[in-house]
Design brief:
By secondary structure, the chain is mainly beta. Helices cover 12% and strands 33% of the residues. The protein has 3 helices and 15 strands. The chain has helices at 74-82, 242-256, 273-283, and strands at 15-17, 20-22, 53-58, 88-94, 103-112, 115-125, 135-139, 145-150, 160-165, 168-174, 184-189, 192-198, 213-218, 221-227, 237-240.
């Protein structure tokens, strides 16, 4: 099965005004075939350098539309991707150059003619050319990503969910064992993974999240980890990265022991005893 890559934008909003599309700058979303590393941050998808061929498969007329374009439930999101309705338009793209569409985008027309615009509400991508969509991405009224569902191992099941707020990733939910239930959650701030929660014993369900391990990250490493051993939801054992702690402590000690001259407090500096003595001798 020949793998292919697609141009995927997670952070850049997209919209079209009239008949012209204004595409924002692309930024790669973390999609990997293996479990996420470095505190569950995924590997980036390589951008496709080939020009994409676009084919409009359905087009709707412009009508006034009020409210949000993005559904709040899974069924509502799926209906948006179906591109049903007069205000919806779907386009297919060939990003690999084999004349087979591998990306499908669904737009919703907002506004009243002549001031109308097409807003991207759904994007589907087939990354490995098997005819099955591996990535589903949903957007808000401004074309900013809200949620992405991806199949990282191409088994036909979505095993990673990425949740965004104002175009920034705030949480990733991962099904590491492929049983259809989330077992890992990673929380982000300003694009950096800060902490994670894991269900090691598999007690969680689709409705109830029951983690038994809590992890905290710094500089891409796990610095502290708490584990619930008896299943009561409380940490029974803490493990810490003593190597990183020792390195930081040593760095602080070196900074404290730094020679005064290096900190501008040595000879020749104003106010030092040596400079005052030298000045007194010169005057005498």
């Amino acid at each position: 099965m020949r793998a292919r890559t697609a141009r995927l934008a997670l952070c850049a909003p997209r919209s079209r005004s009239g008949s012209a599309m204004l595409f924002g700058r692309l930024c790669a979303l973390a999609i990997a075939l293996a479990a996420c590393g470095g505190g569950a941050a995924g590997a980036g998808v390589q951008a496709d350098t080939k020009p994409e061929k676009r084919k409009v498969v359905s087009r709707g007329r412009a009508i006034p539309v009020a409210g949000t374009t993005q559904g709040s439930t899974e069924s509502e999101r799926r209906r948006l991707c179906d591109a049903q309705g007069a205000a919806m338009e779907a386009s297919e793209y060939d990003t690999s150059g084999d004349d087979v569409p591998d990306v499908r985008k669904v737009f919703k027309r907002l506004g009243t003619p002549p001031l109308t615009r097409l807003v991207l509400v759904c994007r589907e991508s087939d990354l490995n050319a098997d005819g099955v969509k591996d990535v589903l991405r949903f957007y808000d009224d401004e074309g900013r990503p809200l949620r992405e569902e991806s199949d990282r191992n191409f088994d036909g099941k979505m095993d990673q969910i990425t949740v965004c707020q104002e175009g920034q990733v705030v949480r990733k939910e991962i099904d590491g064992d492929g049983n259809g239930v989330i077992d890992t959650k990673v929380f982000y701030d300003d694009g950096e993974a800060l902490r994670g929660e894991r269900d090691l014993k598999g007690r969680s369900t689709a409705r109830t999240w029951r983690p038994d391990r809590w992890e905290y990250y710094e500089e891409g490493r796990t610095i502290r980890m708490g584990t619930d051993l008896d299943g009561d939801g409380k940490v029974d054992r803490w493990d810490r990265d003593d190597t990183l702690r020792s390195a930081k402590k040593r760095q602080e000690e070196l900074q404290q022991d730094e020679p005064r001259e290096a900190r501008g407090e040595g000879e020749g500096t104003e106010g030092s005893e040596a400079s005052q003595t030298a000045a007194g001798k010169a005057e005498g």
